[in-house]
Amino acid sequence: MTTLPIPAIDLREGRVVRLRQGDYAQQTTFEFDAAELAQRYADEGATWLHVVDLDGARSGEFENLAVIAAIASAGQLKVQAGGGVRDEAGVRRLLDAGVSRAVVGSVAIREPDTVVEWIARYGAQSITLALDARLRHGAWRLPSAGWTEDEARTLDELAPWYAQAGAVHLLCTDIDRDGMMAGPNLFLYEHLRRIVPGMQIQASGGVRSVADIAALAGLDMAGVILGRALLQGEFQLSEAFSATAQAAAC
């Protein structure tokens, strides 16, 4: 499998931003127009774009849906988007807006039976589970509601359960690494590869260099989400593609 570099755009009040460890008080705002940035990524070779409605992640409403729909309708990129999916209507709104895969986070933790029904209804290729985790007391805990509320279920419980239920796409962020430019948690992704070997895993959080991307590609990740480092120009998207291609050739 060749690992796919996937650039990310996080939106808050229509603007491109990044948070540190999901903390809304630790926001960096970038002076990019979201649609223009998406087009730039497409021009640089991206085929998928990961978009998060940070306002929606907290409120449960899609507050940046117009921007997401504009990017999707341009037709240059396949869009994976989330933030605010609380029910089936939310999934439909994203798919109707042209999103290829709806990212389901909090509800995937709280109501797994419901989410499995959505996977059956819309197809496993239309849903990405976001099981974002932080290591606490020896277990990978799964906070929800924009990472503001701790849930009882663990990653080790839910990920294999979803794999058996037919889910395909799993996005997992180590929250403690997110936006910190500290490198990805390779242990987490090695662990996921062991417990859900058949799932298409997307690694997210902490990627700071081409070497980090190559390391994740070496773990056979389906995708690697590129956020702050790409926005700050730590490397070019073309370099990310070269790194994953070289890893696949080894």
Sum up the structure in keywords:
12 strands, two-stranded antiparallel ribbon, 39% helix, 8-stranded parallel barrel, 250 residues, TIM Barrel
A few lines on this structure:
The chain is built from eleven helices and twelve strands. By secondary structure, the chain is an alpha/beta fold.
Describe the structure.
This protein is of the alpha/beta class and 250 residues long. It has one domain: TIM Barrel (Alpha-Beta Barrel). Helix content is 39%, strand content 25%. The protein has helices at 34-43, 54-59, 65-73, 88-96, 106-110, 112-122, 155-165, 186-195, 210-218, 228-231, 237-249; strands at residues 4-12, 15-20, 23-30, 48-53, 78-82, 101-104, 127-130, 134-136, 139-141, 169-173, 200-204, 223-226. An eight-stranded parallel beta barrel has the order 1-4-5-6-7-10-11-12, surrounded by seven helices. Strands 8-9 form a two-stranded antiparallel sheet. Strand 10, helix 8 and strand 11 (200-204) form a beta-alpha-beta unit. The mean pLDDT is 92.
